[in-house]
Write a structure and sequence with these properties.
Length: 136
Amino acid sequence: MISAAVNVSGSFIDTHSERGLDVLKHCYLSSDDSLSGGKVIVVHGVTDDSGGVTIDPSDTGFRNAAGEEVSLTDVDRILITGTPGVTARFGTGAVILNAVNGRVAATCCIGAGDKNVKITSLSGTSTYTLIMWQAD
């Protein structure tokens, strides 16, 4: 059984004081998704800034917790993290995610075409972890 929660939130407060008046602007963005079922691939490795690595989700070398082969025909979500930093390019439409200093970047609802993810270090070499998820 697969279950996951993808939570992203940002809250920014901008204040300005002038002539006895305080002005406050508050900006907030949030997304909370619960995912269940489907299939997931997790890939951890090292990449560089010259050629990078390409991950093919339809490869047959991935295994689930029970040791069974996992291959994705579609990708509904990707999450990536990298240290010191990586760029992930997904598919023909070149959705680009940057993840630096161990932060996580995520995207969903990827368009048609090539489903491969090319991961390149922002500088020198970087470690990365990539999660690819396909809904049922």
